[in-house]
Amino acid sequence: xxxxxxxxxxxxxxxxxxxxxxxxxxxxxxxxxxxxxxxxxxxxxxxxxxxxxxxxxxxxxxxxxxxxxxxxxxxxxxxxxxxxxxxxxxxxxxxxxxxxxxxxxxxxxxxxxxxxxxxxxxxxxxxxxxxxxxxxxxxxxxxxxxxxxxxxxxxxxxxxxxxxxxxxxxxxxxxxxxxxxxxxxxxxxxxxxxxxxxxxxxxxxxxxxxxxxxxxxxxxxxxxxxxxxxxxxxxxxxxx
Amino acid sequence: xxxxxxxxxxxxxxxxxxxxxxxxxxxxxxxxxxxxxxxxxxxxxxxxxxxxxxxxxxxxxxxxxxxxxxxxxxxxxxxxxxxxxxxxxxxxxxxxxxxxxxxxxxxxxxxxxxxxxxxxxxxxxxxxxxxxxxxxxxxxxxxxxxxxxxxxxxxxxxxxxxxxxxxxxxxxxxxxxxxxxxxxxxxxxxxxxxxxxxxxxxxxxxxxxxxxxxxxxxxxxxxxxxxxxxxxxxxxxxxxxxxxxxxxxx
Lengths: 240, 250
Description:
Chain A is built from 10 helices and no strands. Chain A has 240 residues and is mainly alpha-helical. With 250 residues, chain B is an alpha/beta fold. Chain B has helices spanning 60-67, 89-92, 111-121, 128-138, 154-166, 184-190, 209-215, 239-246; strands at 20-31, 34-45, 49-53, 75-80, 83-85, 96-99, 172-176, 201-205, 218-222, 228-233. In chain B, helix 3 (111-121) crosses helix 4 and helix 3 (111-121) packs parallel to helix 5 (154-166).
């Protein structure tokens, strides 16, 4: 018996290794990001610069309510686009699409792993920028824990939809234009729901938790819809 | 319709009792309106090597990518390892080793990390580290396997790409100019790893007609534009014949 045949655990070649493939692709992406720092530092720098621009552009030292929610969510959204544009660059330029299609794994593993990587990037981004936002604009920090929850739910939608649009755009010559042009209209419902959920948490008189449940429910429904769409179409999108 | 070869080969077609590893009939592939493969037919048995010859633009790489399940045929019947393409592509994947023009290695990972990643995608078990160490040693890359691919020379990257292509012991090897970027010493290290075996078939795309014919059991010669000039056994076919058939330089 050769080392290779000992190594081969699944000689039957089936589509059953997708969970391990998902973990392998996610680990690979996070390893590359840690090594090259290509996405998250750029996102964080963009977000902090944007806060500075808002602070001096609006000429306000404090923000509250819908204006605070809008500044925060718009900044996170545009920072996310930086990462979404780069999400499949290595797969496109270094043959990752071919390498994955040559393996006995479902293309869904790639799409879900990319959404997972984007989710991690967004969580790290918010861990950095939410305190900066609070320092720049908030008098009271008491709503921040709940606001972090709203952002996490928003991130799921951004990641699910961002990975989906990114894979569609990956093989297009106009991919840098395609991502914002397709993604932003699709994210309008997410931004409306996230804004309405965040607004009472950032109220000038302190956070108000009443009435945000329906918006969180809407966010969760939207997230689940695009997670399901991703599961349904990734395998087809990755084929020739 | 395939054009008839202008050079007559005296030797009758050889037949093999081994199972068919790959076959195609009436294979067309178009990019937009442009046909790249026109009515290609081929047959390859296990244990055999099919050498694909032809000038630039003859569709050799496209043919290899169709057989690798990376491109769908526009028309025609294609079967690889008993799986009808594209319907059963997923059943053939993991049994094919593909070495194309791109190494399919991530530049920001090390060679060893790339091979471990490939092993996980292929579903290799706990023996994978041993297999990787063995292959890396055989291609003479043990000392450089922990360096990022972006820091390696093209020849070193090609050696790692060979390891990636055969890591999972594929039943069908698809090789597109496998010795490109390799110096003679490296080519000698890699050659036995890519050699044919009783349970393995090979499709070898090459511009080196003499060395290609020396390894060939069967030959597929494509003309510019993707039409078949010759498909049949290699015995009795000289390098001069082959060049004359596909319209290459004499």
